[in-house]
Amino acid sequence: MTDYLYHSARIRTLEGAILGREKLDRLLSAGSEEELLALLREYGVSPVTDAESGRLLREETLLGILNRAYGEIKALAPDEAVLLLWRYPYDCNNVKAAIKGFIREIDPRSMMFDFGTQKIETVIRMAEIGNFEGLAPAMAIAADEAVRAFAKTKNPQQIDLLLDRACYADMLAAARNSRVAFAERLVREKIDLTNLQIIVRILRMKSGESGRTLLREALLSGGAFSQDFLLSLFEAGEDVLWDRVYYTEYGKLSEAVAATDRSLTAVERSADNFLMEHIREAKYVSYGPEVLIAFLQAHEYEVRNLRIILAGKAAGLSAETIRERIRESYV
After folding, report:
1. 3-state secondary structure 23-54
2. Which residues of the chain have pLDDT under 50?
3. More exposed terminus of the chain, fewer Cβ within 10 Å: N or C?
4. CATH class of 85-179
5. Where do the structural domains in the chain lie, given as residue ranges?
6. Predicted local confidence at residue 75, as pLDDT
7. What is the pTM of this model?
8. According to the model, what pLDDT value does residue 200 have?
9. How far is CA 327 from the centre of its chain?
10. Under DSSP, is residue 18 helix (H, G, I), strand (E, B) or coil?
11. DSSP assignment of 59-79, as one string?
């Protein structure tokens, strides 16, 4: 653990550059794209702009933030295995994109990220030859199953369902193996929060028995809630769902949702804020892997908030509407 003493101190100095509520509000109040670009540069963000028009390229800019954050962690972490699991979702996205690209005979690179444990070209090659060795164990198996499931059903949703479940299984296994309680708790909470949102989305589809079938295929394993409990929430309906959740360890989430209009956007925001409250507990840790994990999660939230602001302004939404969608930040 003392290996993290210097690295944690270094991360504490980098945390000051993370965009908190005050800086996000200033970005939200920017009256022009020129002002917005100037503020981003002032905050240490390197905007990527179109060579001809000079317009901000939103996704390229946001990916640059994550690329830098993951690069800093890779350079600092004394034990990369502790942080490897946070890169699994990018592997999951990339293998889904590579498989679908191969099936449709299109180039998937624009849908892929550089932050996974496997290089983009490696994942593309995996899909081409049908060999997914090198991915985390559950995802390697699920990728092969996904290819066979699509060949049988021609339903691309099967690719997503199989790989999403495998991704969380690999994350949880890696968190357990790391013996970092903070990491395991965050993964378990991500699983629970994702399951609750899956139930709400399927309930609002009003799809009857097909919804029940989809729910059984989509629910993730490894959280605090049993499969039977989650299915009972679905059967009870959304109003009763949140009443029952109130009497679990997610009572604060139930209260937060009750204080909103219960739109999907509000539910997602409440879930993200609930998780951030626990991520912030790393602020009270002097040194250790918790500090580095929280730094990565803080940047994920920073990018999510910037995407909300930039996309909202591009769509002409009011500042108040955008502000209601912004998540809590780490700093």
Report:
1. HHHHHHCCCCHHHHHHHHHHCCCCCCECCCCC
2. none
3. N
4. mainly alpha
5. 1-56+285-331, 85-179, 180-283
6. 85
7. 0.94
8. 97
9. 13
10. coil
11. HHHHHHHHHHHHHHHHHH-S-
